[in-house]
Recover the amino acids of this structure.
């Protein structure tokens, strides 16, 4: 018997393949990035792993063909990557380029599961490939907040990242091997640092998690502004619309998919994993903290959740899961984004 996920969103099987942990593309400094040269009906990437964006008459990506003149960047994690769309032409960047703000090309500058640190590093590492940049729209927020709760995973004043438990576990093995080779020289083995929070670890209070996330986002926005000043690009931070930040009632198709995902998940239900940071109230408190942090740095801030909430009904099918958008969701969000930013 087919799952509702396969019936309603068959393209997600291709995204499962694209994001397979067994095929993870490990890269220097960033830890991991999108699979390069990936080909499917739903998603295609270039030689570096950047997704292809579509304009009315041309295509472009950071690691392949590049349009002449100024471009606009859509930066972030899997939502601006277009995770869940049925084709490259249906992503947010493509809809902006072809329909809602087509006066400049839009490049998808996003990585699956990226947080604010990785978003910034990605720009630094591949900036040399870019033509002049006119707009930098950082469409993000949730991943950094989720990671801020993993208090035991913070290292050297840096926030944790997705899959960092695997990294720390492997590094503990490397250290253990070196310690064994150093025996006899008066060194004693140190106790290993926990590689992942224990199941009974107490998560920080919501306000503490938000403060930690906002501190990281603000720190990185300072760097974005320094980098953008050299080119004259304008930086905007957009708090992504999350299904559970957006509304408490879901569209019928969403309810079928969300309930099924909770039932088949090996990690636990959405509420058990993210309930403390994923409510409508939590999303508003996060936005209320991000707004002054952006204003302090001269970065435009847009909380797209109330904007999208006002533009749709409870019957509008926006999400393929609680984070990623349908084709219609991408198109609606792209139109609202262009309107909010005053872009044509």
């Amino acid at each position: 018997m087919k799952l509702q996920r396969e019936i309603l969103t068959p393209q997600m099987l291709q995204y499962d393949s694209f994001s397979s942990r067994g095929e993870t593309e490990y890269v220097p400094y960033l830890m991991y990035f999108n699979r390069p040269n990936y080909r499917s009906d739903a998603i295609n990437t270039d030689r570096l792993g950047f997704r292809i964006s579509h304009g009315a008459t041309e295509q472009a990506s950071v690691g392949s063909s590049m349009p002449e003149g100024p471009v606009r960047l859509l930066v972030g994690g899997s939502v601006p990557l277009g995770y869940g769309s049925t084709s490259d032409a249906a992503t947010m960047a493509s809809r902006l380029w072809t329909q809602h703000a087509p006066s400049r090309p839009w490049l998808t500058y996003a990585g699956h599961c990226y947080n604010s640190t990785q978003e910034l590093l990605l720009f630094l590492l591949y900036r040399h490939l870019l033509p002049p940049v006119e707009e930098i729209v950082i469409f993000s927020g949730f991943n950094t907040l989720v990671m801020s709760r993993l208090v035991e995973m913070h290292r050297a004043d840096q926030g944790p990242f997705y899959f960092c438990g695997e990294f720390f576990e492997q590094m503990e093995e490397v250290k253990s091997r070196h310690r064994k080779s150093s025996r006899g020289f008066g060194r004693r083995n140190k106790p290993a640092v926990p590689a992942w929070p224990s199941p009974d670890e107490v998560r920080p209070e919501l306000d503490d998690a938000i403060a930690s996330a906002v501190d990281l986002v603000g720190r990185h926005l300072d760097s974005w502004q320094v980098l953008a000043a050299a080119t004259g690009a304008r930086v905007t931070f957009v708090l992504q619309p999350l299904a559970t930040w957006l509304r408490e009632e879901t569209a019928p198709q969403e309810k079928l998919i969300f309930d099924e995902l909770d039932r088949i998940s090996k990690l636990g239900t959405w509420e058990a994993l993210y309930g403390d940071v994923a409510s409508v109230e939590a999303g508003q408190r996060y936005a209320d903290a991000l707004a002054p942090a952006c204003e302090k740095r001269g970065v435009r801030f847009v909380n797209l959740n109330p904007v999208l909430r006002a533009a749709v009904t409870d019957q509008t099918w926006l999400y393929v899961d609680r984070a990623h958008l349908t084709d219609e969701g991408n198109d609606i969000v792209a139109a609202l984004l262009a309107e909010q930013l005053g872009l044509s």
